[in-house]
Specification:
This protein is α+β, with helices and mostly antiparallel strands and 68 residues long. Helix content is 22%, strand content 9%. The longest helix is centred in the last third of the chain and has 15 residues, at 46-60.
C-alpha cells in the first residue's frame, strides 16, 4: 500500500532588487578540448566587461564568451 502524498502549491513572484547595482560577468568558453574557463569576476559596467574580454582575446586568442 502506498502512502498518500499531499502537495501544497504556492504562488510566488521574483522581482529585482531596485537598491542593488547591476553586475556584469563573462566566462571564456573557447578551447580545443575543454573550455578555457577564465572568469572576469563581477564588473561594474558593460564597458569594463568588454575591456576584460578584449584583453583576454588579445592575450590568448580566445574569442568566445558566455555573458551573464
Amino acid at each position: 500500500m502506498h502512502a498518500a502524498k499531499t502537495y501544497r502549491l504556492r504562488n510566488y513572484r521574483v522581482t529585482p532588487d531596485e537598491t542593488a547595482l547591476p553586475s556584469y560577468q563573462a566566462v571564456c568558453v573557447s578551447g580545443e578540448e575543454a573550455d578555457c574557463g577564465a572568469d572576469s569576476t563581477d564588473q561594474p559596467d558593460e564597458e569594463a566587461l568588454t575591456r576584460w574580454m578584449a584583453e583576454h582575446t588579445r592575450d590568448t586568442g580566445h574569442d568566445r564568451f558566455k555573458r551573464a
